[in-house]
Amino acid sequence: xxxxxxxxxxxxxxxxxxxxxxxxxxxxxxxxxxxxxxxxxxxxxxxxxxxxxxxxxxxxxxxxxxxxxxxxxxxxxxxxxxxxxxxxxxxxxxxxxxxxxxxxxxxxxxxxxxxxxxxxxxxxxxxxxxxxxxxxxxxxxxxxxxxxxxxxxxxxxxxxxxxxxxxxxxxxxxxxxxxxxxxxxxxxxxxxxxxxxxxxxxxxxxxxxxxxxxxxxxxxxxxxxxxxxxxxxxxxxxxxxxxxxxxxxxxxxxxxxxxxx
Length: 261
Hints:
- The protein is of the alpha/beta class.
- It contains 7 helices and 13 strands.
- The strands form 3 sheets. The protein has a 7-stranded mixed β-sheet, sandwiched between helices. Strands 5-13-7-8 form a 4-stranded mixed β-sheet.
- The chain starts with a strand and ends with a helix.
- The model has no long low-confidence stretch (mean pLDDT 96).
């Protein structure tokens, strides 16, 4: 029988982590990389027998690679604290990791919930199906500080059963994530020497709303669809606004250095 490990990165996930770990108790190993939780997250993880590794924070991609290095089983399932594995998905995972095939990684469709309501259109399971399950040693994450991706070394297939994703349970969580992801996104763009401007700020923000609300049919998801689209607008707006701030600070610093010379 093939063995499997779950890897999770956490920081102050007391509202999510217990339900997440309960959905993983059938696995052979649960690895939690925690970057400074102060809300009881660690105690909950240890209560259920998870191996908790306390560490600093270097960005989502690097953190997930560090957690991956700690896993020692044949297969790895990378899961976020706000995700849950259903019994149906559990059975499908066990079937494929013990099956006769040449796939090294599997995409998992996600059923997203916003304000505790299932989203059918703008974040559908057809369009949102990231790689989550992979053979250890055959995949790694990009080192991006945010919006990291898994790079597989081999053939990839898709599972049928969904992973439950409770991404935005309330407006407070949405605002918190807008602030976090816009800051990390600006940092990522700045590292690539991307330039921002007032025109870019509004263009990218408006386009993100149009894409999510109209092109991805978010309007069919009602209030939840509007919240997702507007949240995308806000995150994109502040990402490029913060990037413009970084651009200006860097230009001013360069100016001072030139004067000093």
